[in-house]
Design brief:
The complex is a heterodimer. By secondary structure, chain A is α/β, with parallel strands linked by helices. Chain A has eleven helices and 19 strands. In chain A, α2 (42-54) links the parallel β1 and β2 (60-63). In chain A, α2 runs parallel beside α7, α2 crosses α10 and α3 (87-101) crosses α10. Chain B is built from one helix and six strands, in the order βββαβββ. The two termini of chain B are 25 Å apart. Classes of the chains: A alpha/beta, B mainly beta. The interface between A and B is medium-sized, with 25 and 26 residues.
């Protein structure tokens, strides 16, 4: 791999950028691999990268049914944060936040990491109390958080509705100043390029159609491009997890739901960080191109369609306009949907399964993007050693049997209620 | 927008309805020994097919009846709706 640098940029400028290497190869699948990762999204690419880099497994393939960057890694709203309450989530996601800091250097690819702060707004005294509890929980785990009053919030977002007749008056908010954004496509491309450089075969347009299981241990996978032998398989397929689990005769505590996001036409710099509305489900940031990037609720019914319906967009934007009245004058540029693997307690599952050599990474609900590096690292550890990393040890599959749930929001099993 | 045919009120916009999830989940029978596994199944495990899904919907802003909907999760096409006690085949 030729290193990207200011010098390579200048050098290639003289050739009118005709001589850049391809970022990753397009290899034919080999007959056998030491490990196969199914799913070439962010988590799959990161898992393969850390397997090759940290755990010395070199003969790895990633099988992707579509193309790199076409799934949820290219469909999310790019937000990074670790503002959780439970220890398991706090420690896990914050390790991820530390990894984001150096990711561009680590991958030699600019992921446009931008720690511009995430602000959760409170619209009542009770909500501010709840945020103060969450902030304290974060600080006990060594994560910076600060509770802001109404006037401090006004300094950050003066264009929010601070009038006397605001439907949901702003009481204050919880700020995590190292929260922010990173460019989602660059994360996919950066991990793909770096994994390819370590010898990982990224095989696109290759669908897994079945598994060979003998005496409870995996021997290989059947794919649309033939049988491939392997003894270790990692599933990183987000919303499609239940489809592959069915081929393994496994039932999972997962429902697949469509989540939409949308962007407005680009405008001049307006919003610096990420802001979430506390009286409903709406969040907003501004991309480097100037588009307002917005998202909110699930559509609220099982779906694999990767597209949703307009009532949800209308509902989310109504909340947006209640918070930022000036949004009402913007035209929407586009909206899209992705399929979320909603787990029954809102937290992910990174674990081995009852089948020897089959490992599971799923249940990311709304929040998989920010976990991309740490999910890859801990899942690689789990696959390589057969035991969970201490950070993903709480995210076991059998917690739904033992009762050790990590229900951050206390919502229970009705994933479509938000 | 989805248009859902309530078995009692006819076709209405999705805004009037709320979702109730997998309609095939069965509560374990009372007054007999129930294993932990049966409770797990009832509480946490769902059918999650890509394709035809039998699910519950509630006509929240209408007649307030629960009913069953057979819907394709890959296209959002609604194949048929049923009253709750109706055979859904």
């Amino acid at each position: 791999m030729k290193k990207y640098s200011v010098f390579s940029l200048i050098k290639n400028a003289f050739n009118k950028h005709q001589d850049w290497d391809v970022a990753w190869r397009d290899p034919e699948p080999k007959k056998e691999y030491d490990a196969i990762i199914i799913g070439g999204g962010g988590h799959g690419l990161a898992t393969a990268y850390y397997l090759a880099k940290e755990y010395e497994i070199k003969n790895i393939a990633i099988l992707e049914k579509g193309w790199i960057g076409g799934g949820n890694i290219g469909r999310n709203t790019t937000i990074l944060r670790s503002n959780y309450m439970h220890d398991a989530n706090n420690l896990f996601y914050d390790h991820g936040m530390q990894m984001w800091k150096d990711l561009s250097q680590e991958l030699n690819y600019n992921v446009m990491y931008s720690p511009r702060g995430i602000l959760n707004l409170a619209h009542s005294d009770a909500q501010l109390n709840a945020y103060s509890r969450r902030g304290n929980s974060m600080r006990l785990n060594g994560i910076e958080a600060s509770l802001l009053g109404r006037e401090e919030v006004r300094k950050i977002i003066p264009f929010a509705d601070f009038t006397d007749n605001a439907r949901f008056p702003i009481f204050g908010g919880l700020m995590q100043s190292i929260g922010g954004t990173a460019r989602h496509d660059a994360v996919a491309w950066g991990y793909a390029r770096a994994a390819d450089d370590l010898g990982v075969d990224i095989i696109q347009h290759c669908e897994v159609t079945g598994f060979d299981i003998v005496n409870g241990s995996v021997q290989g996978v059947q794919t649309s491009r033939g049988f491939i032998k392997t003894n270790k398989i990692g599933l990183c397929v987000a919303g499609s997890t239940s489809i592959l689990a069915e081929k393994l005769n496994m039932s999972l505590p997962i429902e697949s739901h469509v989540l939409q996001a949308c962007v407005s036409e680009p405008v001049k710099p307006l919003l610096d960080g990420v802001v979430t509305f506390g009286a409903g489900h709406f969040y907003c940031s501004q991309s480097d191109k100037g588009e307002m990037v917005m998202g909110g609720d699930l559509d609220g019914y099982n779906s694999y369609a990767q597209r949703g319906n307009l009532p949800t967009i209308q509902h989310v934007l109504t909340e947006g306009v209640a918070l930022f009245p000036n949004l009402s004058r913007l035209k929407m540029l586009r909206s899209w949907g992705g399929i979320m693997d909603m787990s029954m307690d809102g937290s992910p599952i990174i674990d081995k399964t009852h089948i020897e050599g089959v490992y599971l990474n799923c249940g990311w609900c709304y929040g998989g993007f920010k976990a991309t590096p740490v999910s890859g690292l801990t899942f690689a550890h789990t696959i390589a050693t057969g035991e969970p990393h201490k950070l993903n040890a709480p995210f076991k599959l059998d917690r739904f049997h033992t009762g050790h749930l990590i229900d951050e929001k206390g919502l229970g099993t009705k994933t479509w209620i938000s | 927008m989805l248009e859902i045919k309530c078995p009692y009120c006819g076709r209405r916009s999705q805004n009037e309805f709320s979702y109730g999830g997998d309609a095939t989940v069965k509560r374990p029978k009372l007054n007999k020994d129930i294993s932990d596994g049966e409770w797990d199944e009832f509480i946490y495990y769902r059918k999650n097919p890509r394709g035809i899904h039998l699910e519950l919907w509630h006509h929240t802003s209408g007649c307030r009846q629960w009913f069953k909907v057979k819907r394709d999760t890959s296209t959002h096409e609604i194949v048929k709706t049923f009253m709750i006690e109706e055979e859904s085949q």
